[in-house]
Amino acid sequence: MKQQGFTLIELILVVAIITVLAAALAFEFVGWQERYTSESEIQTMQNDLMTVRTYAMQQNTSYFVQLTNAKPEEYDIYMDKDGSGDLDTSVDTKITSLSRQGLSKQLTSNSGVNPTTITMDRRGMVQVPPTAPASGMSIWLLKDDGNPYGFLDAAHTKPEIEYDCIFLAGTRILVGKYDDTKDPVCQAK
User: Fold this and answer.
1) Which domain, by its residues, includes 159?
2) Residue 184, preceding bond cis, omega within 30 degrees?
3) Is residue 3 part of a domain?
4) Residue 175 sits in a domain of what CATH number?
5) What is d(CA 53, CA 185) in angstroms, rounded to the nearest whole number?
6) Nearest-CA neighbor of 127 among 52, 45, 48?
7) pLDDT tens digits, residue range 15-37?
8) The total number of structural domains that make up the chain
9) From residue 92, how far is each of 25, 77, 80, 106 by CA, in Å?
10) pLDDT at residue 66 above 70?
11) In the predicted model, is pLDDT for residue 158 greater than 90?
12) Residue 2 in domain
């Protein structure tokens, strides 16, 4: 008489293979999730900057985007209520629908000043701080270790992330990839 079914060893072997595959996929999922979150935050910020530029042109008034080292996980957007062309947070109107708090990664820039204020003038032109490089200003995300995503780690590898920075100059607001060996450090894609 022939018995059908699986032996205990066969079942254990199948369960072990499934466990190894599940563990490998879990590590890949964590990396994918971090890449997705980082790219999503950069693209959201670019969309906010483009929206602010459009508002500035439509309403014929300046808008400001402020980044501070005190709160690196957020940025605030203000409308120039008094028409001075300079940010005064006690007078100017904060646009809460476009300001972002609680980003999963910290933001930093190469402006050389803190806080960094980016101005969108009435014509929609991007005005960066005068201390920013002549080629334009870059804003990028920092990893949990405080280094930019495009920065080589101890193993001399760069993470596989498509967008991790924003380049701002004149009429350009472009997403790109951080590369500290080039000028500007945000290489537009």
Assistant:
1) 8-188
2) yes
3) no
4) 3.55.40.10
5) 23
6) 52
7) 999 999 988 887 777 677 777 88
8) 1
9) 49, 10, 5, 25
10) yes
11) no
12) no
